[in-house]
């Protein structure tokens, strides 16, 4: 009987084969592997403490576009950044800036954040110009995840600690 049982949580797909091979080489050839379900609460390895802090711009494109179900946005500029995490390794995020002519009653600046290492693009957040954008240059966005999924945080809800470093939320 073995004295220990070890659990490694939230192993990225691309690392699973490497991990299983190393375990087998060390004589542990029968690991228990479980798929992580969409409704499972994230483990400590997937919490905001694994957010990249070393962002750097790697590319800037003009005239990048994205097709939404009812319209197409044209972004200029479209800036691609890369940061590193322990769990996923390099993460690419692009910020595309556009103006939508009929947004919340008037033409407004939008910035869309895409998770992407090129194409296809995966939009993850939309920021829209605040009513006083011309004076403040502030953008606003919905913060999701209060239920561990897509539910929005309410105005009075406590936000995760990672938001404490923002000037205003």
Summarize the structure.
By secondary structure, the chain is mostly beta strands. The chain folds into 2 domains: 33 residues, no CATH class; 119 residues, no CATH class. It has 2 helices and 8 strands, in the order αβββββββαβ.
Task: Walk me through what this model shows.
This protein is mainly beta and 169 residues long. The protein folds into two domains: 13-45, no CATH class; 47-165, no CATH class. 10% of the residues lie in helices and 34% in strands. The chain has two helices and eight strands, in the order αβββββββαβ. The protein has helices at residues 13-25, 133-136, and strands at residues 56-61, 64-67, 72-75, 78-85, 89-103, 106-115, 122-129, 139-140. It has a six-stranded antiparallel beta sheet with strand order 1-4-5-6-7-8, with no helix packed on it. A two-stranded antiparallel sheet has the order 2-3. β2 and β3 form a beta hairpin. The N and C termini lie far apart (53 Å). The relative contact order is 0.11. The model is unreliable at 38-48 (pLDDT under 50).
């Amino acid at each position: 009987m073995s004295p220990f049982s070890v659990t490694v949580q939230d192993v990225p797909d691309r690392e699973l084969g490497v991990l299983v091979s190393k375990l087998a080489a060390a004589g542990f050839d029968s690991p228990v592997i479980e798929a992580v379900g969409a409704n499972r609460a994230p483990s400590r390895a997937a919490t905001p403490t694994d957010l990249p802090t070393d962002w750097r711009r790697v590319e800037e494109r003009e005239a990048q576009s994205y097709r939404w179900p009812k319209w197409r946005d044209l972004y200029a500029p479209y800036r691609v950044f890369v940061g590193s995490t322990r769990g996923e390794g390099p993460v690419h995020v692009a910020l595309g800036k556009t103006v939508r002519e009929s947004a919340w009653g008037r033409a407004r600046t939008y910035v869309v954040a895409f998770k992407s290492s090129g194409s296809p693009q995966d939009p993850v957040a939309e920021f829209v110009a605040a009513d006083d954008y011309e004076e403040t240059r502030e953008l606003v966005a919905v913060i999701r995840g209060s239920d561990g999924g897509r539910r929005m945080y309410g105005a009075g809800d406590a936000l995760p600690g990672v938001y404490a470093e923002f000037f205003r939320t």
